[in-house]
Design brief:
With 370 residues, the chain is mainly α. The protein has helices at residues 2-10, 19-42, 44-67, 71-88, 91-97, 104-113, 115-129, 139-157, 176-180, 183-213, 218-233, 236-246, 248-267, 273-298, 307-335, 338-358. It contains 16 helices and no strands.
C-alpha cells in the first residue's frame, strides 16, 4: 500500500509514482525461474529462508532510502522485495507437494489463507507507525517489516523440508515446449496472468487515486486496501472445497464474472468511498477464484519430474504480465484517468471469460486431465 504513496512523494514525475510497485512485480518475474532452480537444488526450506533474509535487508534499504529521499534506492529495495515474492509464490507448490493430488485445491487455499494476516498486519503497521519518526514519516513501517522477516526465518528453521520427498528424476521428462503447448497449461497460465494483471492494475492505482487525486486520507485508503486483501484470502477457507464439488471450470468462470463486476462498480466510483471498497472487495474475491482455479489446473499438466520447470514457466508468464500491468497503472492513472483503468480491466477479463466458455465442454466436472 505504501509503495504507491511513497512513490508519489519521491518520484521525479507523477507518471513514475507506481514504478516502485512495478519494479517489485518485475523482480518476481525476473526471479521466478532462478527461484525454481535454486529450490530444486537446495530444497524449499533453505530457499524460503534465503528469500526472507533478502527481504529483511530490502526493508532496511527502503528505510534508508526514505531517510535520504532517494527514489532510486527505494526502487532498488522494491526490486529486492520482488525477489522475495518470487520465492514466496513457491509456497503454494510446496503445499501441493505435501498432499495427495485430489487435495491440491485445499492445499493451495490453505496457503492463501495466510494472506489474511497481511490483510490486517500490513495496513495496521502503516497506520500505527506513520509519523513515529519525525523526519521519516513511513520509515518506521519498514523497520517493523524487517524484524518480521527475521521472525519468518526463525520459524522456518524449525520446519521440515518436504521438497526432497518427491523424486524429481522419476518418470518421463518432456521438453518444456511440449508441456506449454498443452491446452490446460495455456488456460492455467491465462487464468493466473489475467487475475493478477487485472488485480494489480486496479489495486496499484487505488491508493494514489484515493489519496492524491480524490483527496481521501491515508486511513481511508488503508481501509479499502484492507477490505481488498481480506477478500483476496478469506475465501480460501472455502475455495478448495468448492473446487472439489463444483469443478475447476465453474470456479474459474465465477472468478471472471466477479472480476467483471469489480470493474463495473469501479468505473462508477467517482468520489464515493463505499463504491471503491465494494469494487476492491469484488476484485479480491474474483482474483482468488480465478487464480486458485488456474493453479490447481496447472497441477494436471506435469508429472513429478517436470514440476519445477512447469511451475517456473507458468509463474514467469503470470508475473511478467503482472509487471506490465503494474508499470502501466501510474501512467494510465495520471494521463487518462481512473475510468480508463477499469475499462481496460473489464475488456481483458471479458476476453478471458469468453475463452473459458468456449472450453466448457473440455472441463469435466470435478476432474481435469492434461
Amino acid at each position: 500500500m505504501l509503495g504507491g504513496i511513497v512513490g508519489v512523494s519521491l518520484a521525479p514525475t507523477p507518471a513514475l509514482a507506481t514504478l516502485p510497485i512495478a519494479l517489485m512485480v518485475v523482480g518476481v518475474a525476473i526471479f521466478v525461474i532462478p527461484a525454481s532452480i535454486i529450490m530444486r537444488r537446495i530444497g524449499r526450506k533453505k530457499g524460503f529462508m534465503i528469500a526472507a533474509f533478502v527481504a529483511s535487508l530490502a526493508s532496511l534499504l527502503a528505510f534508508y532510502a526514505l531517510d535520504i529521499s532517494s527514489f532510486a534506492l527505494f526502487c532498488t529495495a522494491t526490486l529486492l522485495f520482488g525477489m522475495n515474492r518470487a520465492f514466496v509464490q513457491q509456497y503454494r507448490f510446496a503445499a501441493v507437494e505435501s498432499v495427495n493430488k485430489e487435495f491440491a485445491g485445499r492445499a493451495v487455499s490453505f496457503v492463501l489463507v495466510g494472506g489474511l494476516f497481511a490483510a490486517f498486519l500490513g495496513p495496521e503497521i502503516a497506520k500505527r507507525t506513520e509519523g513515529l519518526l519525525e523526519n521519516n514519516i513511513y520509515g518506521a513501517a519498514f523497520l517493523v517489516v524487517s524484524v518480521l522477516y527475521i521472525l519468518v526465518i526463525l520459524i522456518l528453521a524449525f520446519m521440515e523440508d518436504v521438497s526432497f520427498a518427491k523424486n524429481t528424476k522419476s518418470g518421463p521428462t518432456r521438453p518444456l515446449l511440449e508441456i506449454i503447448k498443452q491446452r490446460n497449461f495455456g488456460i492455467a497460465a491465462m487464468a493466473g496472468a489475467v487475475s493478477f494483471a487485472a488485480m494489480t492494475l486496479v489495486m496499484t492505482a487505488t491508493p494514489i487515486q484515493l489519496n492524491e487525486i480524490s483527496g481521501f486520507e491515508l486511513v481511508h485508503s488503508a481501509g479499502v486496501i484492507q477490505g481488498h486483501i481480506i477478500a483476496m484470502y478469506l475465501p480460501s477457507l472455502f475455495t478448495g472445497i468448492l473446487l472439489e464439488r463444483l469443478g475447476i471450470f465453474r470456479i474459474m468462470v465465477s472468478g471472471a464474472i466477479i472480476l467483471l463486476g469489480a470493474m463495473f462498480v469501479g468505473y462508477f466510483s467517482g468520489l464515493n468511498l463505499t463504491l471503491y471498497w465494494i469494487a476492491l472487495v469484488l476484485l479480491g474475491l474474483g482474483w482468488n477464484l480465478l487464480f486458485v482455479g488456474g493453479t490447481v489446473l496447472l497441477t494436471h499438466t506435469h508429472n513429478e519430474s517436470e514440476r519445477f520447470k512447469t511451475q517456473a514457466a507458468n509463474d514467469f508468464i503470470v508475473f511478467g504480465t503482472q509487471a506490465v500491468a503494474s508499470f502501466s497503472a501510474g501512467s494510465l492513472l495520471f494521463i487518462s484517468g481512473w475510468q480508463l483503468i477499469t475499462v481496460i480491466g473489464f475488456t481483458v477479463v471479458l476476453a478471458t471469460f469468453v475463452i473459458l466458455l468456449t472450453q466448457r465442454q473440455k472441463f469435466p466436472t470435478g476432474q481435469v486431465s492434461a
